[in-house]
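Hey, sorry to bother you again with one of my protein questions. I've been puzzling over a protein and I'd love to understand its fold better. Take your time with it, there's no hurry, and the full record follows here:
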Amino acid sequence: MSTTLLVVQILNGLQLGVLLFLIAAGLTLVFGVMDFINLAHGVQYMLGAYFAVAFYGLTGSFVAALLLALAAALVFGLLIEAVVVRRLYGRDHLDHVIATFGIILFLNSGVKYVWGAAPLSLPVPEALTGSVALAPGLLYPVWRLVIIGSGLAVALLLYVLVSHTRIGMLVRAGASNAEMVSALGVDIRRLFTIVFGFGAMLAGFAGIMIAPILSVEPGMGDTILILAFVVIVIGGIGSIRGAFVAALLIGLVDTLGRSFAVDVLRLVMSPSAARTVGPALASMLIYLLMAVVLWVRPSGLFPAKGR
């Protein structure tokens, strides 16, 4: 296990963590404020990537594609809220699951119809290509550092919005007791719309940022949605701070576990057994972490007040 490889994998874990945070932040607010289980949050991440590819093809500018894709992700999120989600407020969680699973099927088929089933790609901005030397012998892609930096910047912006603005105060109050907020005269439906649209835009931003690294293809949001749900369970429903800490923790545990599980197991078992057990154990680590956290703190690490 070399120090260079360890540093690279830590940075990769941070990159995964900030992407999970961008998705989980909106998901935990929707769940915490609206008490709505949105399985379609992953397809909003996918749509952000597809919108970026489409607008880059039209404009030839990554910045323009980023801004237009963010606007499109917001509008599409508001459209989903108005057409489908708004009709399900107050309904059973099973209705939420069934309806949003239907949205997943519809939109996965929709992107195949519009863009085809073949994977697409979004080029890295020319000014941000290449690698930077973090230490002698340690090169790391510039774009991955941009993802980490932008994710941390969004986390800081969310902290300011949620902790020091009136809309943030309403969001925090809604996460604790939405009925009381409504009784005090706040238009709770408008608050729900704002939260849902903002969450969709955050998920779309995550999709845009990862598009230059991963293939843009139908169903790309399904796997990361599972990780996002693990994040909000560990962090605490309705908590931005919990989502941030849990996302970074999961990103590091998952990345380091997949990279070094075999090497660590070789210390206590034979190499052949380590190669067999290591990958299976690595894929289970985040779920073992979730089980431990729930055993110690059933409400998550930083649950919203009132939960």
Observations:
- Residues 122 and 213 are 8 Å apart (CA to CA).
- The radius of gyration is 20 Å.
- The chain has one domain: 3-296.
- The first helix runs from residue 3 to 34.
